[in-house]
Specification:
Elements: H1 2-24, E1 45-55, E2 58-67, H2 75-78, E3 80-86, E4 94-100, E5 113-120, E6 123-129, E7 135-140, E8 148-149, E9 158-164, E10 170-179, E11 182-190, E12 198-199, E13 213-221, E14 224-231, E15 243-248, E16 255-256, E17 266-268, E18 274-276, E19 279-287, E20 293-301, E21 307-317
Antiparallel strand pairs: 1-2, 2-3, 3-4, 5-6, 6-7, 7-8, 9-10, 10-11, 11-12, 13-14, 14-15, 15-16, 17-18, 19-20, 20-21
């Protein structure tokens, strides 16, 4: 009987340790309180879709903006892409210029929204969307432009999360609405940023268990693709649109790092206070050359329809391989 009790106790401890080990490997444990005076705000404007790149000693943040008089739904007609800068990764960021606006009689005639900035070789490439299934890009020799826009969409999906690989090829993870209420993960690749983009899967979902996707952000570390996204229906975390984390070895089969929420609608601040937003979406992961995560950017919306970009420092998080 005593031996049996010891065996049961050992099994329970093993399960607990395994659960703790899985939990401790997620990004959630490395996120620090947000900087209260950091991030990016603009009086009179809604801000959404942050993406950041460092050039020299300066951090350049691109984001979507539109007049706040139109509320959150104003993005559908008025969204444009702007650039802001800071000498500190966590901000505060200062507005510099409008970068991309919608164009009449072109593929991006509806809006310019959901930017993602990368460096591909010696070019800066800014991916963005117009309609729900049209992703294109603009490129420039300098981060300040001028920007050269393509004349047709490169990919027929939305929420692009691009990754420039060492061989010059591009991998883009994103969202495709198969039916009105079901959003799957898809991926495209191209031999170069200005090459032909080819879909890597058709209707199949790259996420497991029919999990749904919104707002992915991607980084390469530990010889694998790493994704944080909005858990669209709460299939993984149990809470709709909380942050979820996945990884993949081949870019085609993704597995969850953990079932816990990477972030929630509540933001804890470095001054000890906290605030629960109505919505917290569009995560962006900023990582260094080693693949260590240094910051989590999110777009946050108050109950009064005011929005800005919040930045959480991250304690040099390096994603594990989970077998």
């Amino acid at each position: 009987m005593k031996a049996k009790r010891i065996l049961i106790f050992s099994i329970v401890i093993s399960i607990c340790l395994s659960s703790f080990s899985l939990r401790s490997q997620s990004l959630a444990d490395a996120i620090k309180p947000a900087i209260k005076e950091g991030g990016f705000k603009m009086e009179g404007y809604m801000l959404w879709c942050p993406t950041v790149i460092k050039v020299g000693k300066t951090y350049h943040l691109f984001a979507s903006r539109w007049p706040d008089q139109y509320g959150l739904a104003g993005w559908t007609n008025y969204s444009e892409i702007v650039r802001a800068t800071s000498d500190n990764l966590y901000g505060p960021y200062t507005f510099q210029e409008v970068v991309i606006q919608k164009r009449e009689d072109n593929w991006d005639k509806a809006r310019a929204h959901n930017p993602r900035i990368i460096k591909a070789g010696d070019k800066f490439v800014l991916y963005y969307i117009s309609s729900a299934n049209s992703t294109g890009y603009a490129w420039a020799n300098e981060i300040t432009g001028p920007w050269n826009r393509i004349d047709a969409p490169a990919m027929n999906f939305t929420n692009p999360a691009p990754l420039a690989k060492k061989d010059g090829s591009i991998y883009v993870f994103g969202r495709k609405g198969i039916v009105k209420t079901y959003n799957v993960a898809q991926a495209f690749s191209a031999p170069t940023f200005d090459g032909k983009y080819t879909i890597l899967n058709q209707k199949e979902n790259l996420l497991p268990d029919s999990n749904q996707i919104e707002d992915p952000t991607i980084w390469w570390a530990n010889n694998q693709y790493n994704i944080v996204l909005s858990d669209f229906k709460g299939n993984l975390t149990g809470t709709k649109k909380n942050g979820a984390q996945y990884y993949s070895i081949d870019g085609l089969n993704y597995l969850p790092v953990s079932k816990e929420s990477i972030y929630t609608k509540t933001v804890n601040y470095s001054d000890g206070n906290s605030y629960t937003f109505r919505r917290r979406e569009r995560p962006f992961i900023y990582s260094n050359d080693k693949g260590e995560v240094l910051a989590l950017f999110t777009a946050c919306l108050t109950p009064e329809d005011k929005s800005w970009i919040v930045v959480n420092p991250v304690n040099n998080y390096f994603p594990p391989k989970i077998k």
